[in-house]
Design brief:
The protein is α+β, with helices and mostly antiparallel strands. The chain has helices spanning 11-30, 40-47, 96-101, 155-160, 170-179, 203-206, 212-215, 218-263; strands at residues 54-64, 69-80, 83-88, 92-94, 109-114, 117-119, 137-142, 145-150, 191-192, 195-196. The radius of gyration is 23 Å and the shape is globular. The N and C termini lie far apart (83 Å).
Amino acid sequence: MQNGRSFPQTFGIFIILLLTLTSCSNSSQKNSRPTYLKSPVDLLIRDMSTERNFTILLLDMDFKEAESKYFHKYQIITENGDSIQSKESPWTQVNDTFFDANVNNMGMELVSKKNGKLSKIAAPPGYTNYVGNKQYGQWQQRDGNSFWEFYGKYAFMSSMFRMAMFPVRYSYWNDYNRNYYGRGRSYYGPVSNKRNMYGTNSNYTKSNTSSSWNKKPTSFKSRVRSSVSRSATATKSRNARRSAARQSRNTSRYSKSNTRSRSGGFGK
């Protein structure tokens, strides 16, 4: 794996920005006015705005019961000429709605940028920029099927995407490109024994035995899924009411302003 090239400068700056935004959000809550808080992924996208190609994977997730806080860890893949860099983010706090929105996306691409085109639709790891890209590998015939193989220089990517255990067939990748990519639809691969090939509950993701989330008991994960769903629903409802109230106030002020404008300026 290659190292070199600054990738969005430092995570220290990234965390400081996140804490600053969180502080602003807390301040606004005192005035009962909702503030949109960018997710850590949004901040990474902003910091990599000059990159033409990159991938952000949801590497791991966790919940701290004592603090009632949700966390993500990301893998960020960037390019420097013909070399590839891969780095892991530190554990980063996320809000309930973002955690809930991606609770099924562990091990997946949350964001990809391909030739300047940004996609925030979940996809299997490597499918957008690397699998099927002749710069990095080729399709090989085995037992009547076509499988993706990376060139020797990029063999580490096969290990990074765990393709020895879960090889990528051309039919999977072709299905993604023809029917999902660019169409606003997440792709979790084929279904086998009532499970998708990719995603949080897939055998692909569960094979990552070093994951904090995978080390948790099933009862814990079920509680978190249930509680974050309720919390996210309540947060969305609360924000919708606040937004409606703010819109109503703005409409009222606009109406009063127009009334004053029509009634003024005509003396006897």
